[in-house]
Amino acid sequence: MASPEDLYVLILGETGVGKSTWINGIANYMQYETLEDALNGEFKVLIPSSFVHVDDDGNEKKIVIGKGSKDEVLEDGQSATQGPKEYVFKTASSTVHLIDTPGIGDVRGTRQDKENFDNILAFLTNYEKINAVCVLMKPNNARLTVSFRFCVLELLSHLHKSLEQNLLFCFTNSRSTFYKPGDTLPVLKKLLAQHNIGLTLDNTRYFCFDNEAFRFLACLKNGVQFEDEDKEMFAQSWGKSLKITDKLFQRVKELPPHETKSTLSLNEARSIILALTKPMAEILQVIDNNKRSVESVKKEIDLARGDISEFEKSLKFKGFDIERQILDHPVTVCAHKDCKEFVKVGQTQVTNTVYPVICHEHCTIHGLPTETTNDDRLATCLAFEFNTGATLAKFIGKPVSQFPGYKTVSAPDTDVGDVTPGSGWFSCDDAALKKSLTPAKREQYEKYKEEKFQEDCWGCGHSFKQHMHITYTTKVVEKEFLSPEVQKEIRGKQDLKAMKDAAFNRLTLAIRELEEEKEYIMTCATNFGSFLKHNSMVPYNDAFKDYIDMLIQDEKNKDESARNDKQIQKLEDDKRNYQQRKEVLDRSMNESKGASVGIDAVFEMRDKMVNLKHNGKTVKNALDGILDARKQQQHNKSKEVPVVTVSKGGFFGKKLFGRR
After folding, report:
1. What is the Rg, in whole angstroms, of the alpha carbon atoms belonging to the chain?
2. Which residues lie closer than 8 Å to 216 by C-beta, 6 or more apart?
3. Please, are residues 168 and 206 in contact by the beta-carbon 8 Å criterion?
4. Using CA atoms, how far apart are residues 293 and 349, in angstroms rounded to an integer?
5. How far apart are CA 631 and CA 625, in angstroms?
6. Three-class DSSP category at 316
7. I want to staple 334 with a disulfide (CB 3.0 to 4.6 A). Which of 352, 357, 564, 638 is the partner?
8. CA 575: distance to chain centroid?
9. Structural contact between residues 90 and 646, judged by C-beta atoms closer than 8 angstroms
């Protein structure tokens, strides 16, 4: 007898769409062919959940299914599934692995969504293949919500393009739309078309079923009484959902499995690309600064006449390098032009941009890109919250220790958002505090307290859109360009002419090497961008180009005395050349019928950049810790897998899993 066929299905969907209910429904469909059989048999509950039933008289009863756990909460207003979890259904011929995930559009905000996505990707490292990705949706959304659209596209950007063929869409609660996808389908088609996701949304790609039959069973099991006509209606719904679920899994069995390593490698490459974006742009600046220094010294050497000692001094000229210091935790800084400084380095007065205004010393918001402004997730940083000791003291005009009824208290057990670990907590007599304020100030106090977060920082006064995270600091430093060994070699020549020739040749070689490294870095940036574009379902935003634009704006914001118009022109040229190269490569790939930069090529380019003679160390520093952090995250994700064995008499035991 052949070993059971394993089917791996990843379940995704908006919070509240009914993923957990659907999985519970499947557990019961597999055992019971009819609602009556299910009512008389054991109630299968894999995922704890709850809902409120309202009867004809308006009386409410909370229906609790199972018991809560660390992965499932039963609190009202909370997203039920807290982390990815696998559920296994075994039959004689097939084993289905359903991977349940936290809902998209988590009630705790996009910060939690980002963390959920990271956890999902880490959890997928446990699997070699995925047969299908089922995206659950409600059928009657005339438009996709902002959070759903954002989160779906964010997720698709992490999935390899080859996974398109494994995408399926499942519509819950579709009894009200006659088991059809309703108004949602046209909007979904438009969204996918806008992002060039080549799917044909026909009835082999979407499936419409109803969760209400399982909820009806849960009510019956909890003692709720219904009329016979209600039972008859939901019995029909049970049969319909059972058949549609059968159809879904038959489709899953037909799909060629997706190798998970393709998606995981894509995300590893993405981490490398994002980590190198800023260093590559900085390196281009350092290369140009070093070239200018070398060209200047070449002129001095050419003008040198008979003074050997003066000539030897000219060999000890300064070039530039980048020093990098890792921070223990993310720091929120202000990037507004009034809050950043331009510090000149060395005798040549090369300018280094620094961010001295720290608005939150230890920010706990996860998943933000480094040195990127205009990120909405930063709006919940402590720097923009009113209900903090520092902000309240500033608003009231005296230390919190002088507030009425002030006392220190223990930290709450619940999630309190972006709070520095180890922070102190206090309470006070809020009524007495408000009473001490003027009417106008009291009204303002109540408004701020209710809103909790403001757009502008309470420290520097600038918008959260002009703030960003930094996880390390870099600065341009001077260093001797020619090594002591090279200087010694030049001084060892017989006469001044030979010394000048040797020095001139060395410096000419250095310029050529710098030009070649710059050329290679630009090529890598182009290839990295094209790799993501052609291997992700949704192309990423051109981070390299955006960062070049930021450098240009930084230079333009300087005072006229410090502004380097030639540097601006150089950056503009770099951006234009980069864009031209990318367009050429895109056109070339389109003409070559789908050929693109492969994952192996990305890693080869990374390894070569790490070993560049002049700038390899800077590249290596930027990459240090990325792979170790990813491996640690994967190691921390274990699987606790509940297994359901389907009886031979169940519908799925007889029909779905018996067919080949």
Report:
1. 31
2. 35, 226, 230, 234, 237
3. yes
4. 11
5. 10
6. coil
7. 357
8. 26
9. yes
Residues composing the chain: 660
Phi, psi of 222 (to 5 degrees): -95, 15
Round to whole Å and give the CA distance between 496 and 503.
Answer: 10
* DSSP notation for 496-531: HHHHHHHHHHHHHHHHHHHHHHHHHHHHHHHHHHHH
CA distances from 468 to 164, 240, 373, 471 (A): 34, 51, 5, 10
Predicted TM-score of the model (pTM)? 0.58
Looking up tokens 């030639």, which residue turns up?
A: 566
295-304, Cβ contacts within 8 angstroms, sequence gap of 24 or more: 295/511, 297/481, 297/507, 298/504, 298/507, 298/508, 301/500, 301/503, 301/504, 301/507, 302/500, 302/504, 304/496, 304/500
Phi-psi region of 541 (alpha: psi -120 to 50; beta: other; left: phi over 0): beta
Q: Tokens for 389?
A: 């000791």
Which one, of 329, 331, 335, lies nearest residue 464 by Cα? Answer: 335
Alpha carbons 597 and 536: distance in angstroms, whole number: 12
* C-alpha torsion sign, points 220, 226, 227, 231: negative
DSSP string, 205-253: TEEE--SHHHHHHHHHHTT----HHHHHHHHHHHHHHHHHHHHHHHHHH
Q: Is 152 left (phi over 0), alpha (psi -120 to 50) or beta?
A: alpha
Band of the pLDDT at 8, cuts 50, 70, 90?
very high
pLDDT at 157: 72
Give the pLDDT confidence of 176-214 residue by residue, as tens digits: 778 788 888 887 888 788 777 777 888 889 898 887 888
The whole-angstrom separation of Cα 52 and Cα 65 is 11
Q: Which two tokens stand for residue 160?
A: 């390899």
Cβ proximity of 127 and 88 under 8 Å: no
22: nearest Cα among 117, 95, 87: 87
3-state secondary structure 264-279: HHHHHHHHHHHHHHHH
Q: Are 619 and 610 in contact (CB under 8 A)?
A: yes
Q: Are 419 and 390 in contact (CB under 8 A)?
A: no
Record the tokens describing residue 476, joined without a space. 């341009």
- Distance CA(182)–CA(188), nearest Å, equals 11
Helices (H), 345-495: 389-396, 430-435, 439-451, 484-491
CB 115 within 8 A of CB 367: yes
pLDDT at 11 over 70: yes
Count of C-beta atoms within a 10 Å radius of residue 420: 13
